[in-house]
Amino acid sequence: MRPGPARRALAAGLVSLAAVTGCGVQPSDAIPAGDPPSGPVAPTIAQATKITLYLVKNGRLRAVTRTGLRLSQADTLALLAVGPTPTERTRGFTTAVPPGAVPFSVAIGPAGRVAVNPSVPAGELSAPAVAQIVCTVAATMPEGPAQVTVVGAGRGAGPRECPLGDGGDPSSAPG
User: Fold this and answer.
1) Which of 76, 123, 144, 153 has the fewest CB atoms in 10 Å of its CB?
2) Which pLDDT does position 51 carry in this prediction?
Protein backbone atom coordinates (compact mmCIF):
# COMPACT_ATOMS: atom_id res chain seq x y z
CA MET A 1 0.00 0.00 0.00
CA ARG A 2 1.42 3.41 -1.05
CA PRO A 3 1.17 6.48 1.15
CA GLY A 4 -1.67 8.74 0.02
CA PRO A 5 -1.82 12.49 -0.26
CA ALA A 6 -3.21 12.77 3.29
CA ARG A 7 -0.17 11.01 4.74
CA ARG A 8 2.21 13.19 2.74
CA ALA A 9 0.43 16.35 3.92
CA LEU A 10 0.53 15.14 7.53
CA ALA A 11 4.25 14.38 7.26
CA ALA A 12 4.94 17.81 5.75
CA GLY A 13 2.94 19.50 8.51
CA LEU A 14 4.86 17.63 11.23
CA VAL A 15 8.20 18.61 9.68
CA SER A 16 7.07 22.27 9.53
CA LEU A 17 5.85 22.17 13.13
CA ALA A 18 9.14 20.73 14.31
CA ALA A 19 11.07 23.43 12.45
CA VAL A 20 8.99 26.26 13.91
CA THR A 21 9.05 25.03 17.51
CA GLY A 22 12.75 24.28 17.43
CA CYS A 23 13.92 27.67 16.17
CA GLY A 24 15.60 28.60 19.45
CA VAL A 25 13.58 31.71 20.35
CA GLN A 26 13.34 31.93 24.11
CA PRO A 27 10.62 33.80 26.02
CA SER A 28 11.67 37.06 27.67
CA ASP A 29 10.31 39.69 30.02
CA ALA A 30 8.89 42.97 28.72
CA ILE A 31 11.53 45.34 27.42
CA PRO A 32 11.03 48.96 28.53
CA ALA A 33 10.82 51.36 25.59
CA GLY A 34 9.56 54.64 27.07
CA ASP A 35 6.14 56.28 26.95
CA PRO A 36 3.52 55.12 24.49
CA PRO A 37 2.86 57.31 21.45
CA SER A 38 0.51 60.25 21.94
CA GLY A 39 -1.06 62.99 19.83
CA PRO A 40 -3.25 62.91 16.75
CA VAL A 41 -3.02 59.97 14.44
CA ALA A 42 -1.66 60.88 11.03
CA PRO A 43 -3.63 59.45 8.14
CA THR A 44 -1.82 56.57 6.55
CA ILE A 45 -3.92 56.26 3.44
CA ALA A 46 -4.96 59.32 1.47
CA GLN A 47 -8.69 59.51 1.08
CA ALA A 48 -10.10 59.60 -2.41
CA THR A 49 -12.02 62.69 -3.41
CA LYS A 50 -14.02 63.84 -6.40
CA ILE A 51 -12.22 66.04 -8.90
CA THR A 52 -14.35 68.15 -11.25
CA LEU A 53 -12.84 69.10 -14.59
CA TYR A 54 -14.47 70.92 -17.46
CA LEU A 55 -13.85 69.30 -20.83
CA VAL A 56 -15.27 70.05 -24.27
CA LYS A 57 -17.88 67.90 -25.97
CA ASN A 58 -19.48 68.91 -29.27
CA GLY A 59 -18.03 72.41 -28.87
CA ARG A 60 -19.65 72.92 -25.46
CA LEU A 61 -18.21 72.89 -21.96
CA ARG A 62 -19.22 69.91 -19.81
CA ALA A 63 -18.36 68.95 -16.23
CA VAL A 64 -16.58 65.62 -15.81
CA THR A 65 -16.07 64.09 -12.38
CA ARG A 66 -13.12 61.86 -11.62
CA THR A 67 -12.17 60.09 -8.42
CA GLY A 68 -8.63 60.59 -7.21
CA LEU A 69 -6.44 62.01 -4.50
CA ARG A 70 -6.88 65.61 -3.43
CA LEU A 71 -4.87 67.81 -5.80
CA SER A 72 -3.77 71.41 -5.72
CA GLN A 73 -5.57 73.76 -8.10
CA ALA A 74 -2.46 73.89 -10.30
CA ASP A 75 -2.30 70.09 -10.51
CA THR A 76 -6.02 69.91 -11.27
CA LEU A 77 -5.51 72.37 -14.14
CA ALA A 78 -2.63 70.23 -15.42
CA LEU A 79 -5.18 67.43 -15.92
CA LEU A 80 -6.90 69.67 -18.49
CA ALA A 81 -3.71 69.82 -20.53
CA VAL A 82 -3.30 66.04 -20.28
CA GLY A 83 -6.78 65.72 -21.74
CA PRO A 84 -9.56 63.20 -21.36
CA THR A 85 -9.09 59.66 -20.14
CA PRO A 86 -9.59 56.91 -22.74
CA THR A 87 -13.14 56.39 -21.42
CA GLU A 88 -13.92 60.10 -21.63
CA ARG A 89 -12.45 60.22 -25.13
CA THR A 90 -14.75 57.40 -26.30
CA ARG A 91 -17.66 59.44 -24.91
CA GLY A 92 -16.65 62.34 -27.16
CA PHE A 93 -14.76 64.59 -24.74
CA THR A 94 -11.72 66.64 -25.80
CA THR A 95 -9.64 69.44 -24.32
CA ALA A 96 -8.75 72.83 -25.75
CA VAL A 97 -6.00 73.43 -23.18
CA PRO A 98 -2.64 72.83 -24.88
CA PRO A 99 0.04 70.65 -23.24
CA GLY A 100 2.38 73.67 -23.25
CA ALA A 101 0.15 75.43 -20.70
CA VAL A 102 1.66 73.27 -17.92
CA PRO A 103 2.82 74.09 -15.31
CA PHE A 104 0.17 76.43 -13.95
CA SER A 105 0.46 78.68 -10.94
CA VAL A 106 -2.62 79.79 -9.04
CA ALA A 107 -2.92 82.75 -6.66
CA ILE A 108 -6.07 83.25 -4.60
CA GLY A 109 -6.92 86.81 -3.63
CA PRO A 110 -9.67 88.36 -1.55
CA ALA A 111 -13.37 88.09 -2.37
CA GLY A 112 -13.11 84.98 -4.53
CA ARG A 113 -10.65 86.48 -7.00
CA VAL A 114 -8.22 83.97 -8.50
CA ALA A 115 -5.30 84.57 -10.86
CA VAL A 116 -4.16 81.63 -12.99
CA ASN A 117 -0.85 81.83 -14.78
CA PRO A 118 -0.31 79.14 -17.46
CA SER A 119 3.08 78.64 -19.08
CA VAL A 120 1.81 80.07 -22.37
CA PRO A 121 0.64 83.64 -23.02
CA ALA A 122 -3.04 84.05 -22.20
CA GLY A 123 -3.60 85.52 -25.66
CA GLU A 124 -2.57 82.19 -27.22
CA LEU A 125 -5.34 80.29 -25.44
CA SER A 126 -8.61 79.77 -27.30
CA ALA A 127 -11.93 80.86 -25.77
CA PRO A 128 -12.82 77.22 -24.95
CA ALA A 129 -9.41 76.72 -23.24
CA VAL A 130 -9.91 79.83 -21.09
CA ALA A 131 -13.46 78.70 -20.24
CA GLN A 132 -12.16 75.24 -19.24
CA ILE A 133 -9.58 76.84 -16.94
CA VAL A 134 -12.07 79.30 -15.43
CA CYS A 135 -14.75 76.68 -14.73
CA THR A 136 -12.30 74.10 -13.39
CA VAL A 137 -10.82 76.65 -10.98
CA ALA A 138 -14.30 77.80 -9.94
CA ALA A 139 -15.22 74.18 -9.17
CA THR A 140 -12.28 73.94 -6.76
CA MET A 141 -13.37 76.97 -4.74
CA PRO A 142 -15.18 75.82 -1.59
CA GLU A 143 -16.77 79.19 -0.93
CA GLY A 144 -18.68 79.37 -4.19
CA PRO A 145 -18.32 81.22 -7.48
CA ALA A 146 -15.02 82.84 -8.24
CA GLN A 147 -13.81 85.53 -10.60
CA VAL A 148 -10.85 84.07 -12.45
CA THR A 149 -8.25 85.98 -14.42
CA VAL A 150 -6.04 83.93 -16.72
CA VAL A 151 -2.68 85.72 -16.98
CA GLY A 152 0.36 84.72 -18.99
CA ALA A 153 3.36 86.60 -20.40
CA GLY A 154 1.92 89.90 -19.18
CA ARG A 155 -1.37 89.44 -21.01
CA GLY A 156 -4.60 88.63 -19.25
CA ALA A 157 -8.05 87.26 -19.96
CA GLY A 158 -10.58 88.18 -17.34
CA PRO A 159 -11.76 88.48 -14.74
CA ARG A 160 -14.33 85.91 -15.79
CA GLU A 161 -16.87 83.66 -14.18
CA CYS A 162 -17.73 80.20 -15.38
CA PRO A 163 -19.93 80.66 -18.48
CA LEU A 164 -22.13 77.64 -17.77
CA GLY A 165 -24.97 80.01 -16.87
CA ASP A 166 -25.11 80.64 -20.62
CA GLY A 167 -25.84 76.99 -21.41
CA GLY A 168 -22.24 75.83 -21.36
CA ASP A 169 -21.20 77.54 -24.59
CA PRO A 170 -17.60 78.69 -24.03
CA SER A 171 -17.78 81.11 -26.97
CA SER A 172 -20.35 83.14 -24.99
CA ALA A 173 -17.94 83.75 -22.13
CA PRO A 174 -17.60 87.43 -21.28
CA GLY A 175 -14.46 88.98 -22.63
Assistant:
1) 144
2) 92
Helices 73-82 and 127-140 sit at what angle, rounded to 10 degrees? 140
- One DSSP character per residue, 96-144 reads -S-GGGPSPEEEE-GGGEEEEE-SS-GGGS-HHHHHHHHHHHHHH-TTS
Helix (H, G, I), strand (E, B) or coil at 171: helix
Question: What is the bridge-based pairing of β-strands 155-160 and 105-108?
Answer: unpaired
State pLDDT tens for residues 108-145.
888 778 889 999 888 888 989 999 999 999 888 877 66
CA distances from 38 to 22, 34, 42, 61 (A): 38, 12, 11, 49
Q: Are 170 and 160 in contact (CB under 8 A)?
A: no
Poorest-confidence range of 8-12, 60-64, 131-135?
8-12
